[in-house]
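Minutes, methods subgroup
Present: GH (chair), OT, SY

1. OT presented the first of two proteins processed in the latest run. Sequence and structure tokens recorded below as shown on screen.
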Amino acid sequence: MKQQHTIEESANRPGGRPAAIDEIHILWISEGMSCDGDTVSVTASSQPSIEDVVNGVIPGLPKVHLHNKVLSPTLGGEHFLAPFRAAARGELEPFIFVVEGSIPNEKINGEGYWTSFGNDPETGEPLTLNWWIDRLAPRAWAVVAIGTCATYGGIHAMAGNPTGCMGLADYLGWDFTSAGGLPIVNVPGCPVQPENFMETLTWVLYHAAGSAPPPPLDEMLRPQWLFGKTVHEGCDRGSYYEQADFAGDYNSPKCQVKIGCWGPVVNCNVPKRGWMSGIGGCPNVGGICIACTMPGFPDKFMPFMDMPPGASLSSALVKPYGAFIRRMRGITNVTANKEPKWHHNRDELTTGYDPRWRPRRTTTRSR
């Protein structure tokens, strides 16, 4: 395969700025422990869509070659594996390495393996996901973990699992730096919110093109602008919490914290962003937040339908304040629902109109 730019060329240019990359590959492996739900979710993105990125519709982005098994136009097999094998040999760069699914511990697999991606051409033995990560991650211009399984382990890493699963940063190290000088970029979600991932990927691509700085990440390597606020801060049910008005069942439009919602402590923007085309999002459609974007998911948030431990205290403390505020607002609401008294059709003006200044009358001389 033809190389576009070497990593060394892309690393530096006069003035200390990275060289612009005009063509780049995205090697997307979803053979981690997962359901491929993140790939499926991303197909619903519209701001931007994966099609617009790949087809070069968005100005300023490098030309993108996407290699993803669900979205690939190839017939599969060795044809699909070719760019991955070339990258592992150091013959394809630059590329962004996207990992979907949690990373199993192959050191405890006994005589078998937990998950694989293709076979060794010489021995015919399966090549594990870990084998690919060991060879591709160090050569990648950027490494992106998509979905909670890849970022923090997710469902497959919960207590009692036999695979020893973990997130990509647990496997590579939280201080890992890609060949392009970037840390791992974590975009959690179970599955990932479509626009959250595509927006992040687009930022990384603009950075590769030399027209944007590196994406700002928090201490858990999440994009700050997406995960800097809590579900509660963007929830359209949040005002009910402030007024201590809580739902007792899942048919209520009120705050769901007493029936299992973890929104007040979960970093996620789904209530504000929606799920598809701005519509949906768990609390928006009657679902509780089960904290699927968080590093401690799922273990720290189960049983999902039980009230979170801190909710009983916080809801008790807010109850007297909320009851008073709700009553005062009710009184003001009654007043606000009345029209002013001067809205009438009588033959007098009662609006209080009383101009303090009137223009002086001027006389004109006759000629």
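2. SY then presented the second protein from the same run.
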Amino acid sequence: MQAMLLETPKQPLQAVEVPIPTPTVDQVLIRVQMCGICRTDLHIIDGELRDPRLPLIPGHQIVGTIVELGATVTEFQIGDRVGVPWLGYTCNHCRYCLSGRENLCDFAKFTGYQLNGGYAEYTVADARFCFRIPDGYPDLQTAPLLCAGLIGYRSLGMTSDAKHLGLYGFGAAAHIIIQVARHQNRQVYAFTRPGDAQGQQFARDLGAVWAGGSDEFPPTLLDAAIIFAPVGALVPTALKATAKGGVVVCAGIHMSEIPAFAYDILWGERMVRSVANLTRRDGEEFLTLAPQIPVQTQVEAFPLTAANQALEALRHGRIQGAAVLVIDT
């Protein structure tokens, strides 16, 4: 099969031919139709996330069709359309797994990081960590739901019932979660790179009551903010814009260094917290909710062999919405 392979961090992916993988007893073999491109992929490729399994096929927003079942798999059938997310394996016996926090599992493995992912024509995945795709969602529009959507949904849950919600970084995750927030009758304030008039208009088109640069102050104090951009300097910026008792949620898996800040912008029972990975429950809840809204993803499609170009476009903020690789099998 054709695949895009990371052989060495900080180097472009290589187009290669490798054997189609064989599923183990609890895995399924999936013919990949689409694979979303995530900023986490950039963090892995750029060496910011340590110890990836190398050589590695990246990609963890996979949509495809099952073509082979492992011997013990009973929850799916050949021909089923499934999605494969970032969380690819947990141990089911550590203290986190036993307390419903499998996203923090000490022995977790992640798709496109420790497990080969979806920048390829075929992939294998543990059937227990695959999701059924809601009817009515085309493959292309589904792929961004599997990480941008899921992490955004988990992050939104950390903001409780915040009425005035700030979103810092208006990319794939924010353009999905603003639709959920508006469905919940929240008022959303979108922060983009300074001067990004197109991104700000995109946010307003999706229902933001205000949009401006991350160097601007919103017209009212926020009850909560979610930081999707991997920029540590946004933490004190968001705290200054957040009312007493509010929360600033850092949604990324990697962030640049957070600068020192005065205690008075944290005082008043403000809180800073991170979001780590996702649980299968997050996936089941979000993929049930998304078609009820319905969430509509805006996607820019690239062929598999253009993965490097797509990653560069994402790196430099040239993607409006989400980028997705289309695998022609």
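Chair's summary of item 2: The CA atoms of residues 53 and 114 lie 5 Å apart.
Next meeting: continue with the remaining queue.
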